[in-house]
Amino acid sequence: MHYTLSEDIKHILLALLIGALIGAEREYRSKSAGLRTMILVSLGACLFTILSIRIGNSSSPDRIAANIITGIGFLGAGVIFKDESRVTGITTATTIWMVAALGMAIGSGHYQAAFVGTVAVLIVLAFLAPLQSVFERFNRSRHYRIVCPYRNSSLSKYEELFRKHKLKASRGRQSRSGGLIEGNWEVQGPDRNHEKVIQQLLKDPDIHEFDF
Question: Distance between CA 180 and CA 151 in Å, rounded?
Fold first, then answer.
């Protein structure tokens, strides 16, 4: 495929626009990879694709573009974090991956695919978030950590409380120090049931420490 300077400029401007549209949505939600990151990912993928097509030999004109996927994988991994209760950043990482794909589509001249892909990404990020929140209200996952005096039935008492309020609890790490025992659970269920349990646990005089 023959490229002219005007085509290169058009590709770069379109890649910038796509990165800006998706980056603006991420910036609005205060995500770690925002406007500048998405623009640079889109521009970088576009330019690498253009160069791959131009300087690649006849047998493998895509040899540079193929490595974009690997590079983006390392970049995306840097925004994924795990704490005690959940993993965060997966949506941001996959958005970076998708923006790189859109930049490659622009760089290779597949404008229709890039346009449809951009619209699809914006719909998923901007309009499906409220729907996800609705689902989460009916099946929220929370991490509970309770420290209380050690007795034979200490932790079973709280597991019974979870069951009473129709919450599914999976016991995690337990540890005992002196006369105290610590229990950890991953608990799933409706928000309103979590709130009832939390209120009871906050009023429990036996609990020394409580995180949720």
Answer: 9
* CB neighbours of residue 112 within 10 Å: 9
pLDDT digits over 98-140, tens only?
999 999 999 989 999 999 999 999 999 888 877 777 777 788 8
Domain that holds residue 95: 5-127
Let me know whether 21 and 97 are in one domain: yes
Whether 123 and 158 share a structural domain: no
Q: What are phi and psi of 143, to 5 degrees?
A: -105, 125
Question: What is the separation of C-alpha 183 from the centre of its chain, rounded to a whole number of angstroms?
Answer: 28
Dihedral sign of CA atoms 112, 117, 118, 122 in order: positive
Q: Are 168 and 100 within one domain?
A: no
Q: In CATH, what number is assigned to the domain containing residue 194?
A: 3.30.70.260
pLDDT in tens, 186-198: 999 999 999 999 9
Distance, in Å, from the CA atom of 191 to the CA atom of 185, rounded to the nearest integer, reads: 16
